[in-house]
Amino acid sequence: MTIGLFPVVGIPLPFLSYGGSSLWSFTILLFIFLKLDAHRDQQMERK
């Protein structure tokens, strides 16, 4: 931050923030992706 190589503000790091909202949103997003991946695997087995 001092020498200006990286921006000072940006998106929160997954699972590493002060508030619980980032933790919950990334956790829910992770479970949605896992569910979609499992659903895709089931569709591939049917073909």
Write up this protein.
This protein has one helix spanning 20-46. It has a domain at 17-47. Helix content is 57%, strand content 0%. The chain is an all-alpha fold. The mean pLDDT is 77.
Key words describing this protein structure:
mainly alpha, elongated, 47 residues, 0% strand
In short:
The chain contains 1 helix and no strands.
Secondary structure layout plus pairing:
Layout: H1 20-46
Envelope shape: elongated
Q: Kindly report the average pLDDT value.
A: 77
Query: What distance separates the N and C termini?
Result: 52 Å
* SSE-based structural type: mainly alpha
Rg of Cα set: 17 Å
Percent of sequence in beta strands? under 5%
Order of helices and strands: H
Fraction in helix: 55-70%
Give the low-confidence spans. none
Counted beta strands: 0
User: How is the biggest beta sheet arranged?
Assistant: none
Number of helices: 1
